[in-house]
Amino acid sequence: MPETRIDQLPAAIAALPADERALAERLFDVIATEGTIVPPPEMTPWLERTFGSVEATLRQRIVRVTNRWTFEGATFNSLRARRPGSGTTHAAPAADPPELRERIERSQGDDFCDPEHRTPADSFGRIRGRHVVTAANVAKAEGWHSVGVFDRHDPLALDLALVEDVLAVAGEWAGQVREADAEARHFFLLWNCLWRAGASLVHGHTQMTLSPQSAHARVELWRAAAERYHAETGSDYFADLATVHRALGLAAGGDDKVELFASLTPVKEREVIALVPTYQDGAMDAVELAALAEPLAATLRAALGELGVRAFNIAVFGPPLGQPEPRWRGFPLVARFVDRGNPLSPTSDIAALELFGTSVVASDPFDVARTLQGALADTKSEEATEEE
Ligand SMILES: [Zn+2]
Description:
globular; 13 strands; HIT family, subunit A; 2 domains; 388 residues; binds zinc ion
């Protein structure tokens, strides 16, 4: 079977079995357009050099996907990755560029290299895991906002054991916070890797927030979209979202516990989403975070390995901790990963279209999914070795 590409999405949806095609059309609006250019002859050598051929640029296929419920959207045009200075990640580097290695090494000895003496604790102290220790955030974005500092400086030295500890420590931290403040119910974990992804310190770290009353704005957007979807169609939004991605060949693994797929409406390059149902409908228990370790570790393995990603963002969130709430029914535990491009590029990957319009994406979700499938199998065997 030939490998599907994102510019063939309209045909791929049309070829689905009727039920899945109906779901895809209910969830997504897909528009394919063509753009043409008329270059002067003087541009020919540059176009050939930059884009591989002049023909590739004369008629360009652009596919725009919009989620009809969340209104998240992405415009795909693979040519944009080849623009000079695009800052797009290049696949499968044999090694990190020396300049990147040097910048990471040069920042050795930062505050997170000595968290016990150079970071504040929370009012209840610190959570100490096998690889991660917590600190209170000095400049908070939420009443409860802390940092999980890794036991290694290098933010790219990542493996399954570290990811497991990131989630375990975050869960314990949330439990401690809730003993001090039962109103704090909405958990959010954020992971910014390298300056290009917004990290102010190079040293590997994650952050956690716990909010009262409501979740962060974009989490509430997903919740409201799922609620509206259920009210109007009678179906489960997240289950249908996973079904459509799986039917199109965008998922990896796919057992009844975890849905892992490359998103059709990535917020930027190579977004991967993991969904895990919670034990109780409308609530989560912090220990359930552990279920995200394997899919997240597999995503990082694919990203840092074959896909060549170095700067990335991750978010983890779910329904509120504690008592189930009807308005959160059907909401799973979620992890979102996105590639932020070349950390050595001087051009930002986020511009006016991303902030105010529709994200422009150069990478192909079908390529991401294929890489993810191999990485998930490798991660499962790493876990088996760990357990021996
Ligand atoms: Zn450090």
